[in-house]
Design brief:
about 150 residues; alpha+beta
């Protein structure tokens, strides 16, 4: 099942304050779960994952009142990310089709990229205020099969 966590579940919460720190953390998770094995992750998928991490964390910092938490949960066929921020506001483009903006008028390219590269996107309120944005990013192995 897509997004099914590895046994035992290994959600990894990281204390990160920047997109660069989040990317480094997720790269370490990929290295530990895929690249340390005989079936390394497809680098293109890892690049997509790192782009999604960058956009989610940058949005939390820029538009969400700051980053309140970050988690990466490796699954058999990818990684589920959870980014917590301090704002209750749901981005306008969050549930859009993923079309890139015609010009740079108000909305950026972040949400359309997230929608194109991630799956199972959900936005939920946090009990203490703010929201959690959770996404699943598929990771294939060099053999072309899901891990």
């Amino acid at each position: 099942m897509r997004g099914e966590e590895l046994a035992p579940a290994r959600a990894v919460t990281a204390r990160v304050t920047t997109a660069a720190a989040a990317r480094a953390h997720v790269r370490a998770v990929v290295d530990a779960c895929w690249n340390a094995t005989a079936r390394p992750a497809v680098e293109r998928d890892v690049i997509d994952l790192l782009l999604v991490v960058s956009e989610l964390v940058a949005n939390a910092v820029r538009h969400g009142g700051g980053l309140a938490g970050f988690e990466a949960s490796p699954a058999a066929d990818g990684i589920r990310l959870a980014v917590h921020d301090h704002s209750d506001v749901v981005p306008e483009a969050a549930h859009g089709p993923g079309a890139l903006p015609a010009g740079h008028h108000g909305s950026g390219y972040g949400w359309p990229l997230i929608i194109r590269l991630a799956r199972d996107i959900s936005i939920s309120p946090r009990p203490s205020g703010g929201k959690t944005i959770s996404v699943f990013v598929p990771i294939r192995t060099d053999s072309g099969e899901a891990s």
